[in-house]
Design goal:
Layout: H1 3-20, E1 29-33, E2 36-38, H2 40-56, E3 61-64, H3 75-81, E4 88-95, H4 97-102, E5 108-115, E6 118-126, E7 131-136, E8 141-143, E9 146-148, E10 160-162, H5 169-185, E11 188-190, H6 195-203, E12 209-212, H7 217-229, E13 233-236, E14 249-252, H8 257-263
The structure holds adenosine-2'-monophosphate and calcium ion.
């Protein structure tokens, strides 16, 4: 089985399990604060994906949001060392955990593979619409077997842009502040609750752009390659080419990128 097929199968397996658990009374556990929550389903999903991938490739490295890092090394170190790691799987077992907890249908599974620090594969599965987005470096982006590409709109006023709020108060504040200027330029703003879903929607042209402060690598790694391979652009909010340790990002159809950049 190819790496891509393995990632797609793992994402679908976990995604269907998550979807079967919506509104079944799953309890949220607090992580760092009331805003930062996790459920047993996040952990079950991560274990399913980790077992699936590591069974196929026992020598590969695995970085998951919930349980697979942090014990020995801080995340910043893991990302700094990533350029020496031949195969690093970067996994968000549920992106949009808050939606999942509240019974709102907006969550995804996100799986990326980085080889020596370079993103080579990305899969985002939305079990709510049964949409499987996937890409490989140099091969374009796809959704459910069809090639996808970014929107052709040149003007921000013709595009919908999305954003989101992480659990860290300082990042929320700066994100909210930036909505004022962005809201004046774009047709409308959406907050769907999953950064990975936003990235997938930029890649397939439903959104013209997405920006957010305070993200982690597992939220966006798959989406970064998906957007790039669909013809779009991903940078930090300072306009630098995305690197795995960037937390503040803009993803767009390229044409409206500078408008977002100038608003921040
Ligand atoms: P999560 O559901 O996996 O927590 C919501 O706007 C988006 O921000 C989701 O992708 C959510 O991922 C992410 N998010 C929320 N809190 C975060 C945090 N403290 N660090 C990184 N990403 C976060
Ligand atoms: Ca996440």
């Amino acid at each position: 089985m190819s790496y891509l097929q393995t990632a797609c199968n793992a994402a679908k397996l976990a995604g269907k399990m998550i979807f079967s658990q919506v509104s079944t009374g799953i309890i949220a556990e607090k992580k760092s604060s009331n805003f930062d929550v996790v459920t047993e389903i996040d952990k079950r999903s991560e274990k399913m994906i980790r077992d699936f991938i590591l069974e196929a490739y026992p020598k590969h490295s695995f970085l998951g949001e919930e349980e697979s890092y942090g014990a020995e090394q801080p995340l910043s170190q893991v990302l700094q060392d990533a350029r020496d790691v031949p195969f690093l799987w970067i996994v968000d077992p549920i992106d949009g955990t808050a939606n999942f907890i509240h019974g709102i249908l907006g969550f995804t599974v996100s799986i990326a593979l980085a080889c020596k620090g370079e993103l080579v594969l990305g899969v985002i599965y939305d079990p709510c619409r049964d949409e499987l987005f996937y890409t490989e470096l140099g091969k374009g982006s796809f959704c459910n077997g069809k090639r996808i590409s970014i929107s052709e709109e040149e003007q921000a006023a013709d595009c919908i842009i999305a954003t989101g709020f992480v659990s860290t108060p300082a990042f929320r504040e700066v994100n909210i502040a930036s909505m004022d200027s962005i809201g004046k330029e774009f047709r409308s703003i959406r907050v769907l609750g999953s950064a990975a879903l936003h990235m997938a929607y930029v890649a397939c042209g439903r959104l013209g752009a997405f920006w957010q402060y305070g993200l982690s690598v597992w939220d966006i790694a798959a989406g970064v390659l998906l957007v790039r391979e669909a013809g779009g652009m991903v940078t930090s909010t300072k306009g630098k080419v995305y690197s795995l340790s960037d937390q503040n990002i803009i993803a767009s159809n390229s044409k409206v990128h500078s408008t977002v950049l100038n608003c921040l």
